[in-house]
Each structure stands twice: as structure tokens, then as C-alpha cells.
Write a structure and sequence with these properties.
Number of strands of chain B: 17
Strand order of the largest sheet of chain B: 8-9-7-10-13-14-15
Largest sheet of chain A: 4 strands, parallel
Largest interface: A-B, 39 and 33 residues
Shape of chain B: elongated
Structural class of chain B: alpha/beta
Radius of gyration of chain A: 19 Å
Distance between the termini of chain A: 15 Å
Oligomer: heterodimer
CATH class of the largest domain in chain B: Alpha Beta
Helix content of chain A: 25-40%
CATH class of the largest domain in chain A: Alpha Beta
CATH topology of the largest domain in chain A: Rossmann fold
Order of helices and strands of chain B: EEEHEHEHEHEEHEHEEEHEEEEEHHHHHH
Shape of chain A: globular
CATH architecture of the largest domain in chain B: 3-Layer(aba) Sandwich
CATH topology of the largest domain in chain B: Rossmann fold
Largest sheet of chain B: 7 strands, parallel
């Protein structure tokens, strides 16, 4: 079984789910944070030899074992606070941290491919400061805008003002496993987007470029997958261990 | 150069912690490489016995080191020639490359190399001085030959070469052989390693022999080179094996001999080849995992591009457009491990880990070793296309070939005897056996491009194609596909279905001749037909316009009627109200009245009504029907009902919450 972790209103994820299922990623189970967190039972075992196993029973009795999972498309950026809304206020922060830890441990322990693995900076891949993205994009060979930031005592220049995001037509290139996927984009730009994914240690990354100049605008580990169309689905299918 | 046999499918390399650094034992074949500071402008004189500096640097320290019979040899040849060649190459390709004129090799007894490296690092003109451990062939089997003499005629072993066959087990080489140029026509390959048996009965047809270095006399190297060449260059005949690209021209350069080394061999090969041709690097070296020590189990061995001089030579080749296929190494290493980003002592200050292509990219295609289909030759090495336990892996590994059970020339355990020219094996292994498969695939692909009159693919294009096509890597227990070795190539996908099989092309040629005369006639008719068609088109367009105008008229009339109706209703209501008010006023004894028809108020009302009617008749749509989208042909046609899915998921979530809340209370 393959898992898609996403919010119920994550339309790009639902779109990908229909496409991946049609391609043969079957069964593909869509799990929302609500289904996960209101499940009846979680069992996370860490064995002395370093192996681990996780199983949980969803409301309604459906059981999911880590051993049966063949791949995960993970689009949960964080544990949504509303799921701890029924706790007393003093416990909510603590409960959220526990849930986050459980998510990280669970997904990191899977032997199956997970796009993206959770890290400290985000449950579906690192969310970085624009300055970090700009630096990494430069390292990856992408053209970047001059990045300016205010210094204490100086005049703060918000990042948005220094980039073209506000005015530019944005073209999103999806990079999967170090490969920029956009057959209509120049090969070197595609390669650079792929490299950015590698540098960011993020297997699935959306790279926003200025459609006119190709300059780097931003990046996200939770991109709109529809931007990449069928080639992205094909790459996802392959990276998630699907077999044609 | 003897290597220990590793029983098939049994070895599980154990993970280990990094051992304490210590000076490794330096084996024969190690190389001391010096990288000079570019500003020093070093120039070697008197055959490497003297050094001068064009940049006026103090080279006395260097000279004193060289005093004891040590030779300082420009690694890639005379410095001025290297500079001139690089400039010419840059002008031709439009790409600069690493400065190869600053690399030197120090020729001295192996035991002195480490001490010399330390002494050289103290010199102002020296940027880096490091000892490269001896390179080895990345093979996992070194089997003894069968002692029985070969039969008078060698049997046909091609049925055992499953890697030639259909995907996903094979690379579709037999299919590619039916495509124009798909046997590697007009492509040249140079294999870089230690020795070969070019007098082998199955390597006679399209080979150019050894063109550089001095082949080793070691039979291990010789068997290795022979087996490698057999995979892509085995002759097309009724016996033995057939290569993946049997018509490609095959040559070899040895890493041994005076002034020779792996980097020089790569560089010399690049100079002998043209864009689209292929270099194969059949070497790997002990890396930092075990302090660069040569070991019989090859654990910790990595691809050669990690060393600066080899990287520079590969970059030189790929900048020229030559495809470089490089064995990924048998060290069972994760090449993404942080250990490979730690710069060793003696490396250039600007060195960065090339396995992280975000740092820099040699342009080579790195090859991992995957398991053949279970049951091949009656053995099982795990799921097909899963990583073999010894294969290095990581993000930089581009593609995989068979790492076990490869049937090819050499070794003599499939057919042996006293005559080495008749030896065959069906157990050639390692990233050694995987890499020649990729070379054959690339030669077939490029041969097909040339045959079609298309430009050959660049190294980056070939790599991208290999990464984006092929049969995907599988999981194996303890070796998940996340330990990347890439896909097994599929020539059907790489070449694509654009080209017709040779038979069809031949038929087409005959048909072409027959049809030529008819075509001229048809052409004339076509011109006439075109004119008639154009006229018809124009008429059609006119008709459509008329129809649309008529449609618009009907629509406008309908809207007009609707508006009129609404207006009438409102007017009626307002009039009724006014009349009621007037009646009330009259009843109260007020002025004005309804009697006498044709009062001034009534005629004004009529005039206003007429004006309004005229205004309504002028109303048009601001988006005409011809400009409105046809929603039946929209982009969302056939799209899944994501809204429905969303609602269902929200419902499931709410139900889960309800169940949880009610169960826990």
C-alpha cells in the first residue's frame, strides 16, 4: 500500500492521488491529519537492533502497518493545531510536540521511499528562510536576485521588495530526486533546479522561477504538483517505487 | 593484483565506525600528485629533473626535494602545450575547464611518496600534494579457469547473455540491433584500466588494440579487461558472446607504464575521441573510510573522480563532449555520507566533494551494480534490479547495470583450457561488469543518433536520459531502493519508437523509388486541390460568419423581449401606485385628474416610454457568442471530482473525531 498524507483541502495532492492511482499505485490510501490523529490506537516499537515498527488503527477499524507501506507522498507541513483543540490549553503545545515527534519517528523509520522525509524544519521537508533559499539557489547555479536584508539600526528592506515575486509570472519547476522536470525548460535551468533539490536535501521540491528571465524566486517542499503535469506524476510514480 | 573471490550473494558488508587515522600502507601503483599554484607558472626542464617558475616564485625548496633522483613530470604533458590545447578546446566548445597545466606527477620509489608529499606541501609554489592509493579493477570475482580444454568450436553463449534481451531483465540491446546504427556504428570506445587480451577469438572484428600506457602482465587485470570489452564489443558471429555495441570501435589505454596514471590515461583517451564517443573508467580506489588502505574485500573503495587530478581529466573529457562512464566502486559505501566532504590533508584548498554535484560536477555517468533477475544461471542475488550489497550508492549514482552473472569473454570458468583466447565466463561481477553494460547502451544510442543524421547527445543529455528512463531500482531486504543506484537502461525507451526497423526502412526506400514518378503527378494535383480547398475554406468561413450574425440577432431579440417584459411589469406596478395615489388625492379634493384622456402628464409618460424602448433596442452583449468558450472542450473535461474527494475526506475526519470523542468519554 502507498500512503498520501495531506490535508483534506490539499487539491494538488488529491489531483496527484487520482493520477497516481490511475497509473497503478494501488492501493493508495489518502490520510488526513484528522484521520491520523483521531485514530484509535498507535503502536510504535523501537527494537534493540535499531529496527522499528509502527502500526495504527484508524477510526472504523482499518489498520495500517509500517511493513505494508511501499511508499509515502508526505505533504503535511506540520501537525495542525486544531487536532489538539479538545485538550486543556496548558497541554496543547506539549501534545503538538509529541505528535510531531511521533510523525518524525514513524516516517523516518520506514524502509519505503518517503517524499519528503520529515526534518526539524518541517514535517514534509525543510521550510527555509528566503535568504537560505537564495544562497542555495545560487550554489545550484540559478540566477538569483540580489538579496537585501535590514540590519539592526538600519532601514529594514523586506525580502519581498527585493525579489520579483510580486510582479513576475511564476513558473514552477518540480524537482524530484535531483531531477528538474520540465521538458519545455532549458536543460541547464532544469539541472540547476534538480541540484537545488539535492542541496536542500529535499527529494520533492517545487522551484519557482521568473517565467520571463528564469531567475530564482522561491522554493517549497510542498509544491503544486499540477504545475508539472504527467511527467511529474511519472517521476513520482517511479520514486515511490511504483512498477509499470 | 590478486583479488579475493567473494561468494555470490552471500557477503553482507558489516557497517563500521570510522577507524582512527593512521598512515596507510602505500601499495605499489600509488601515485603522488602535485598541484602547483597557477601564479607560480611552473615549467619542468631536463625531463623532470629541474623546475623553473615563470611567475618568479622561489622554487629552491622544490628543487632540493627533487635532488635525490626524484622526477617531477607534468601529468598531462608539456605545460605550454596543455595550455594551448585547453585554449583551442575552449574556443571550439565554448566551455572553459580546469587548468590542467598545474598538475604534476612525482616519480619516486613508492615508500618515499608520503614523505615527499609532506615536503612538497611546504613549498610556496605548491597548492596541493597528495598520494593516490593504487587503483584496482572494481570486480567481485576472480575465478580460476576450467582446466578442460575448449571444444573445437566454441558454443554460442548468447542465450546466457540475458542482459542483451528484453526489459526489464535486459537493456533491449537485441531490439536496438534492429535499429539503424543501433549496434554502435561509427562510435569509438576507449576502456581505461590495466590489461586486455585483444587476441581473444571473440574480440577480433572492430578493435584498435591498446593505444596508450603499458599493459600489466598480471592475469587478473588481463581477464578483467577482456571481460569488460566482451560485454560491449563481443563480435557478431555464431559462437561465444555478442556485445551490446558490436560494431563500435574498441580501444584501450593502460594506467601503467612510465609517466602513466589514471588521470593521464583519461586525458589521453579524451584527446583521441570526438564528441559522442565513450570513455570507460574501470577503476576504483580505497577512500577515506578505511584511511585509504588497499584491502582485499574492497570495502570503502570509491569512484576515482573523488581525487582532484582524475576529476580534472574527466571534466576535460566531458567538456569536449565525450561521454565518460565511470564505475561507481565496490566499497558498499553511501557516497552521500559526510565523510566524503571532509577534505583530506594535501588536497587543494578549493577542493569540494564531487559526489555532491551541487558542489561541482565532473559530467561523468556513475554506475552502480544491480542484481540480475533471480534464477539467472540458477542463482539468486536478490530482487531484480535491487542494489547488490557491495555496490556504492547515493544521489550521484546515475544508473545501474548487471553486477552479477554477466556472461562475457575471459576468466575461463565457462569455457577454459590452456588457450586464453578461448576463455569465457558467466560470473563476471561488480561495478566492473555493470559499467560496460552502460557503455554498450550509450554507444548504441549514439550510433543510432548518427545513423539518423541527428547530432549526438552531450554527456549531460545522456546522463539525463539514463536517469529518467529505464527499469526502476527495486528494494531488497536491507537494501531499499532509497539507496540509489538508479535505473537499468532500456534502449527501447532511450532510442524511442521514432525510427523504423531496418526492414521497414529498406521497404520504404524501394517504395520511394516506385512512388517518385507518381509523386510528381500527385504534387501537381495537390496544388490544384489546395487552391480548391482554400476557396472552400473561405466560403465556409463566410457561411459561419453569417450564421453567427444570425444567432446574435436571435439572442438580442430574446434579451430585448425579456427586458421589455420586466420593464412592463415594473411600469405597470408604478403606474398602479400612482393612479391609486391620484385617486386618493382626488378623493381628498386635490387638483389634477384622470378624465379627459390626452392630459400633458400622459403624453410625457408615453414619450419617456418610447425613449426607453429605443434604448433597450440598442442593447448588445459585451461578450459575443463567438468569443464565449466552449465548455464542453474545456481543460477540466474528464477531470476527477476533487471537490467530492475533499468533502469525503472532511466527512471521514469529522466522523473519526466524533468516534474518538464518544469512545473516550
Amino acid at each position: 500500500m502507498w500512503l498520501l498524507l495531506c490535508a483534506a483541502d490539499d487539491v494538488p495532492a488529491l489531483w496527484a492521488a487520482t493520477r497516481l492511482t490511475a497509473r497503478g499505485l494501488d492501493p493508495l490510501v489518502v490520510l488526513t491529519p484528522e484521520l491520523l490523529h483521531y485514530s484509535f490506537r498507535w503502536e510504535h516499537r523501537l527494537h534493540s537492533d535499531g529496527a522499528s515498527s509502527v502500526s495504527f488503527t484508524l477510526a472504523g477499524g482499518r489498520r495500517i502497518d509500517s511493513a505494508a507501506i511501499r511508499g509515502v507522498l508526505n505533504r503535511l507541513p506540520f501537525v495542525p493545531p486544531h487536532i489538539v483543540g479538545r485538550l486543556v490549553a496548558a497541554d496543547r503545545q506539549y501534545a503538538l510536540q509529541e505528535w510531531t515527534a511521533l510523525h518524525m519517528s514513524w516516517l523516518s523509520s520506514l524502509r519505503a521511499p518517503v517524499l519528503n522525509l520529515p526534518v526539524m524544519e518541517g514535517l514534509c521537508g525543510a521550510w527555509r528562510h528566503p535568504s537560505e533559499w537564495a544562497y542555495l539557489a545560487g550554489e545550484a547555479g540559478l540566477t538569483t536576485e540580489v538579496y537585501r536584508q535590514g540590519v539592526p539600526g538600519g532601514t529594514a528592506v523586506p525580502h519581498a521588495a527585493t525579489t520579483t515575486r510580486g510582479a513576475a509570472m511564476v513558473r514552477t519547476v518540480i524537482a524530484i530526486d535531483g531531477q528538474g522536470i520540465d521538458e519545455h525548460l532549458a536543460e541547464d535551468l532544469c539541472d540547476s533546479c534538480g541540484r537545488l533539490g539535492v542541496l536542500a536535501k529535499t527529494r520533492l521540491l517545487g522551484v519557482d522561477l521568473d517565467a520571463r528571465t528564469g531567475a530564482f524566486i522561491g522554493a517549497s517542499p510542498r509544491p503544486d504538483l499540477r504545475e508539472g503535469g504527467e511527467p511529474v506524476i511519472e517521476a513520482l510514480f517511479s520514486s515511490l517505487g511504483g512498477r509499470a | 593484483m590478486a583479488k579475493k573471490t567473494k561468494p555470490a550473494g552471500t557477503a553482507q558488508p558489516t557497517r563500521r565506525s570510522r577507524p582512527a587515522p593512521q598512515t596507510p600502507e602505500i601499495r605499489e601503483g600509488a601515485e603522488l600528485i602535485v598541484v602547483a599554484k597557477a601564479a607560480a607558472g611552473l615549467r619542468v626542464r631536463r625531463g623532470g629533473a629541474e623546475v623553473a617558475s615563470l611567475g618568479g616564485a622561489n622554487v629552491r625548496g622544490l628543487t632540493s626535494v627533487l635532488a635525490g633522483g626524484v622526477r617531477f613530470v607534468p601529468l598531462f604533458g608539456n605545460e605550454d602545450r596543455v595550455v594551448a590545447r585547453a585554449a583551442a578546446a575552449a574556443a571550439e566548445t565554448g566551455r572553459g575547464g580546469p587548468d590542467l597545466s598545474v598538475f604534476y606527477k612525482v616519480e619516486a620509489p613508492t615508500a618515499q611518496l608520503s614523505a615527499l608529499a609532506r615536503a612538497l606541501m611546504a613549498d610556496d609554489s605548491v597548492e596541493a600534494a597528495y598520494v593516490k592509493p593504487a587503483a584496482e579493477p572494481p570486480v567481485m570475482n576472480d575465478v580460476p579457469p576450467d582446466m578442460n580444454d575448449a571444444p573445437p568450436v566454441t558454443p554460442d553463449f548468447t542465450a546466457s547473455q540475458i542482459y542483451l534481451g528484453a526489459a526489464p531483465g535486459g537493456v533491449e540491446a537485441l531490439w536496438a540491433h534492429t535499429r539503424p546504427g543501433g549496434k554502435g556504428d561509427n562510435i569509438r570506445i576507449i576502456d581505461i584500466e590495466g590489461a586486455w587480451r585483444f587476441s581473444h577469438e571473440d574480440l577480433m572484428q572492430v578493435q584498435g588494440g591498446v593505444v596508450g600506457g603499458a599493459p600489466s602482465t598480471d592475469i587478473g587485470w588481463r581477464n578483467h579487461g577482456t571481460a569488460v570489452i566482451g560485454e560491449f564489443g563481443g563480435d557478431e558471429n555464431a559462437f561465444g558472446v555478442t556485445g551490446i555495441a558490436p560494431t563500435a570501435n574498441t580501444r584501450a589505454i593502460s594506467i601503467f607504464g612510465p609517466g602513466q596514471g589514471s588521470a593521464k590515461a583519461i586525458h589521453d583517451a579524451a584527446d583521441l575521441l570526438s564528441p559522442g564517443d565513450v570513455i570507460l573508467i574501470e577503476l576504483h580506489r580505497p577512500g577515506p573510510r578505511f584511511n585509504f588502505a588497499n584491502r582485499s574485500d574492497q570495502l570503502g573503495y570509491i569512484a576515482v573522480e573523488w581525487w582532484e587530478d582524475d576529476w580534472a581529466a574527466i571534466k576535460y573529457a566531458t567538456n569536449k563532449g565525450v561521454i565518460v562512464v565511470e564505475a561507481g566502486g565496490n566499497g558498499a559505501e553511501n557516497l552521500d555520507d559526510g565523510i566524503y566532504s571532509v577534505k583530506p590533508a594535501g588536497f587543494p584548498a578549493a577542493w569540494t566533494n564531487p559526489f555532491n554535484r551541487g558542489n561541482r560536477d565532473s559530467g561523468a555517468i556513475l554506475v552502480g551494480a544491480g542484481a540480475p533477475p533471480p534464477g539467472t544461471h540458477g542463482r539468486d542475488h536478490g530482487p531484480d534490479r535491487s542494489r547488490l550489497d557491495f555496490s556504492n550508492y547515493g544521489a550521484s549514482v546515475d544508473t545501474q547495470g548487471w553486477g552479477r552473472e554477466v556472461t562475457t569473454c575471459g576468466y575461463g570458468n565457462l569455457q577454459g583450457g590452456s588457450n586464453e583466447d578461448l576463455w569465457y565466463t558467466d560470473t563476471f561481477s561488480g561495478t566492473s561488469s555493470a559499467s560496460p553494460i552502460i557503455v554498450g547502451v550509450v554507444a548504441s544510442l549514439q550510433g543510432n543518433r548518427k545513423a539518423q543524421g541527428q547530432p549526438v547527445y552531450t554527456p549531460a543529455q545522456v546522463r539525463a536520459k539514463l536517469r529518467s528512463t529505464g527499469s526502476t531500482q527495486n528494494d531488497a531486504p536491507g537494501r531499499p531502493a532509497t539507496q540509489r543506484i538508479g535505473n537499468r537502461p532500456n534502449l527501447k525507451q532511450l532510442i524511442g519508437g521514432i525510427v523504423k526497423p531496418l526492414k521497414e526502412v529498406a521497404k520504404d526506400v524501394i517504395k520511394d523509388k516506385e512512388l517518385k514518378a507518381e509523386k510528381i503527378e500527385i504534387k501537381e494535383h495537390k496544388v490544384e486541390a489546395k487552391e480548391v480547398k482554400n476557396e472552400a475554406k473561405e466560403l465556409k468561413a463566410e457561411k459561419l460568419e453569417i450564421k453567427e450574425v444570425q444567432k446574435e440577432k436571435v439572442e438580442i431579440k430574446e434579451i430585448q423581449k425579456e427586458l421589455e417584459k420586466q420593464f412592463d411589469k415594473q411600469l405597470e406596478k408604478r403606474l398602479e401606485k400612482r393612479v391609486e395615489k391620484r385617486i386618493e388625492k382626488l378623493a381628498d379634493g386635490g387638483q389634477g385628474g384622470l378624465g379627459g384622456g390626452g392630459t400633458p402628464q400622459a403624453s410625457a409618460l408615453e414619450a419617456r416610454l418610447g425613449a426607453l424602448e429605443a434604448a433597450v433596442s440598442q442593447l448588445t452583449h459585451f461578450i459575443g457568442s463567438q468569443l464565449r468558450p466552449d465548455l464542453s472542450q474545456g481543460a477540466l473535461t474528464g477531470e476527477a471530482d476533487l471537490g467530492g474527494m475533499q468533502q469525503q475526506l472532511e466527512g471521514e475526519g469529522a466522523a473519526a473525531k466524533w468516534e474518538k470523542d464518544n469512545t473516550e468519554r
